[in-house]
Structure formats: structure tokens, C-alpha cells
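Hello again, I could really use a second opinion on something today. Take your time with it, there's no hurry, and the full record follows here:

___
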Amino acid sequence: MPTHFRTGVSNQVPGNPLFQFPYLDPTKYVTYFNDFLTYHADEWTITTTEAGSGNASEALTSGPGGLLLITNDDADNDLDFLQLKGEAFKYVATKNMFFTARFKVSDATESDFVMGLGITDTTPLDTTDGFFFLKADGAATMDFLIEKDNSATTNSSVATIADDTFVTASFHYNPTGGSASSGGGAFEIFINDVQVATQTTLTNATDDEDLTVSFGIQNGAAAAKTMTIDYILAAVER
């Protein structure tokens, strides 16, 4: 039987104006969550290359929980990348940061993709700043990168991707998860809700840029490739 808190639950301290607010304080975190029950193109900065015989597209598709389907044009290196307008997330060494996304690609080998937080630019696959999962063309393994000013700390092969198979890729920046010698913080990396790596080297942590949700796919061969996104959550402690 569930526990009932009839007068509410608070995560604030006595004296705070929200102490008796009967819900958890939503102002503690900047949070973005999208289950893709709806999609509005005007909320996104979209970068597209269409050198093939048709056009790229971004549209809702049927499936449990809501899905966004990105479909590229059919030339090699055709691409379609989406970045949420407004850079609402910033890494601070003393603050928690969370990111999780569930997605799949049609071709695990002959495609490149990125999923995570990055600066807004026209080359999200080759971004200079951010925290993101990256898969290169010609390999089915996915890496996690911590990058600042085009210098990256890479956690290689944190997952192996399969064709048309959903994967959940997540990270948590834990400000107390590392050792004192590493600055105290650590990035905890998860695949399908299982922790697979911890990165305490924070030299390349982007602390001077505002970041946004960034994802998309590039063809690795002359055939249309797709990326399907189930959900994305990004949150950072205020």
C-alpha cells in the first residue's frame, strides 16, 4: 500500500517562504523534460544537410510513450541536428547536473550521432563545448565526452549500439563524487540505468559556456538513416 502524505512533502528548510508549500520545491532545479507527445519545430534550432534525392524530416511517430522520428536525406553525410532554443544549462563544479535520453538509430555502424548538452552552433557533431554521448561513423561503439574549447576528456566505448534498438544514455555530475585531489566532483555515466564509468578528470569541464539539449544523426553511407527519440531529461541545480 502506498504511503499517503496528506499535508504534503517539503524539501525546504524552516524559514524559507516555500517551507509549507505542500510539494517539493520546483525552483531548486532548472529542468527540461520532453516525452515527445508533441513537437513544435519553432522551439528548435535545426541544422540540416540535404544532398540526396529527397528531404530530411522531423515528425512525431506512433509508439508507446510518444516518439520523435528524425529522417535524413539519402546522400552520404546528409545530416539533421536539433538544438533546443535558449541555452538554459550551465555546469558549476558545486552543483548537481543530470541528463538522460532514450533513443535508437536505424543503422548502428553507418551513422554518426550526438546526444547530450552542447553549445548552439552549426556543427553539433563536432561541437567545441559540452557534455555528450557521441558515436562515430564506421563503429557501433558510443563514447562520452567532456569538452571545453575543443579539448576533450573521452570515456571510450561506454556502450555498443545495435540497429533499431533503444538505448538509455545518462550522466550525473556529482559534485561530491570524486576525490579531493580531483576537485571533489565526478561524472557518473550510465547505460540502460546501469553505471558503466566514472570520470573524475574535470580539466575539460565546460564552465564558461551556457549549454542546451543537442541531438541528431549524420549518414555514414549513401542511404537515409533515422534516429528515434523516446524522451529527454536535462536538469541542473540552481
Summary: Residues 62 and 68 are 9 Å apart (CA to CA). The chain has one domain: 27-237. The two ends are 34 Å apart (CA to CA).
